[in-house]
Automatic annotation (TrEMBL):
Region (Disordered): 1-46
PROSITE patterns: BRCT
The species this protein was found in: Emiliania huxleyi (strain CCMP1516)
Sequence ranges assigned to domain BRCT in this UniProt record: 109-185
Protein name (record): BRCT domain-containing protein
InterPro entries linked: BRCT_dom, BRCT_dom_sf
Biased composition (Basic and acidic residues): 15-30
Length: 185
């Protein structure tokens, strides 16, 4: 069973008129040249900075930013500088650049026990009486960075016996997902 479709002639005429107007409108735009390509701009006109000497790059960055970095960022960079110098074998140039960074006023922060380490906390409410705020304060005073959560960049989880017994989320993540060492406060 087929049905015939009836179309009104006035409808067809209006559609043809709209098509003709669209053709005329876009015909003028087709003759214009395309817009210019976006300008590629970089933060530094020399392009991406690539160096095989990580120690030298970090040391020169610390020299340039001496005094303008906050203490936590400076500690992290100094820790990274120490690790990179150890990986590179701590050659004469590495020792000299590390010495220059230390001479810029950062020697005190590099001698701290937890410099460059990131610690997460799951402590407090224990019979030891040490709260999480006090622990965080002492970790920061020793040069460490305190993280609110356990993630792949956390070096150590400080967990109370109560947190381990209750198997808190931080303890589960440290044990299972990230294999992070756990220490008591």
């Amino acid at each position: 069973m087929s049905r015939d479709i009836s179309v009104d002639a006035s409808f067809l005429e209006s559609q043809r008129a709209k098509a003709e107007e669209r053709r005329r409108r876009f015909e003028a735009a087709a003759r214009e040249p395309p817009p210019p390509l976006p300008k590629r701009s970089m933060a530094w006109p020399g392009g991406k900075i690539v160096t095989p000497n990580k120690v030298e790059a970090i040391a020169s960055f610390l020299e340039r930013k001496a005094g303008s970095l906050d203490e936590a960022k400076e500690r992290v960079l100094l820790g990274e500088l120490g690790r990179a110098a150890a990986e590179a074998g701590a050659g004469a140039a590495a020792a000299a650049s590390a010495g220059a960074a230390a001479a810029s006023g950062a020697a005190a922060s590099s001698s701290r026990a937890l410099a460059g380490l990131t610690l997460a906390l799951s402590a407090g409410g224990d019979e030891s009486g040490v709260g999480q705020a006090e622990l965080a304060k002492s970790i920061r005073a020793a040069g460490g960075v305190v993280s609110n959560t356990v993630h792949k960049r956390v070096d150590l989880l400080v967990a109370s016996a109560r947190a381990v017994k209750r198997n808190t989320q931080a303890v589960r993540k440290a044990r299972g997902k990230f294999r992070t060492p756990i220490a008591a406060p």
